[in-house]
Structures are given as structure tokens and as C-alpha cells.
Amino acid sequence: MYPEQPPSKLRWRCRRGMQELDVMLGDWLEHCWSEANEDCRLAFDRLLEVEDDRLWDWLAGRSLPAAEFHDIVDAIRARHFSASAK
Q1: In the prediction, which pLDDT does 8 show?
Q2: 43-63 burial, b for 16+ CB within 10 Å, e for fewer?
Q3: What is the pLDDT of residues 23-52, one digit of tens each?
Q4: Is the dihedral of CA 27, 31, 33, 36 positive or negative?
Q5: Are 72 and 40 in contact (CB under 8 A)?
Q6: Angle, nearest 10°, between helix axes 19-32 and 70-84?
Q7: Under 8 Å CB-to-CB from 12, ≥6 apart: which residues?
Q8: Is the pTM of this model over 0.85?
Q9: Of 31, 47, 50, 30, which is closest to residue 39 (Cα–Cα)?
Q10: DSSP-assigned states of every residue in the chain
């Protein structure tokens, strides 16, 4: 469905009302998209439809994500927190 490089539409959709979300989503898109399988890419696309407050709670670990987003939220968190620990 998607090429190896993320579509510019997805880059634009990663721009949110919170800088923290911009960084986490944009970083995963830039560094992990090309290696992600189709299911993961589709989950990321659907994740971008979630409202910012709920999305931030999931990515910050304040609440559990909906089951369909568990894997992609974990992947984004792992990428962000491992990159920020370096």
C-alpha cells in the first residue's frame, strides 16, 4: 500500500498541537517506517486519527491504548525512550 519512504501526507499528519507528539510521531515515521510491516504502517496511519489528549496519554504511559494500537504505541515509545536515553 505504501512506498518505503513515508508519504508526505503522513509527515503532515504527524504535526500535532503538542510538540512532544510532533517529536515522537515524526521520529518514528522518519526512522522506523521503512522497516515496518504493512500491519504496523496501517496501525500508525489509524493512530494519527486519535485526538491529541488521548494519544499523549497513551504515549506518555498515563493510560493503556486501545487494543488495536498497543503494538504501535509500544514501538513509538520504545523508539523515543531509547533514542532519548543516548
Answers
A1: 83
A2: bbbebbebeeeebbebbeeee
A3: 999 999 999 999 999 999 999 999 999 999
A4: negative
A5: yes
A6: 100
A7: none
A8: yes
A9: 47
A10: ---SSPPHHHHHHT--SSHHHHHHHHHHHHHHGGG--HHHHHHHHHHTTS-HHHHHHHHTTSSPPPGGGHHHHHHHHHHHHHHHT-
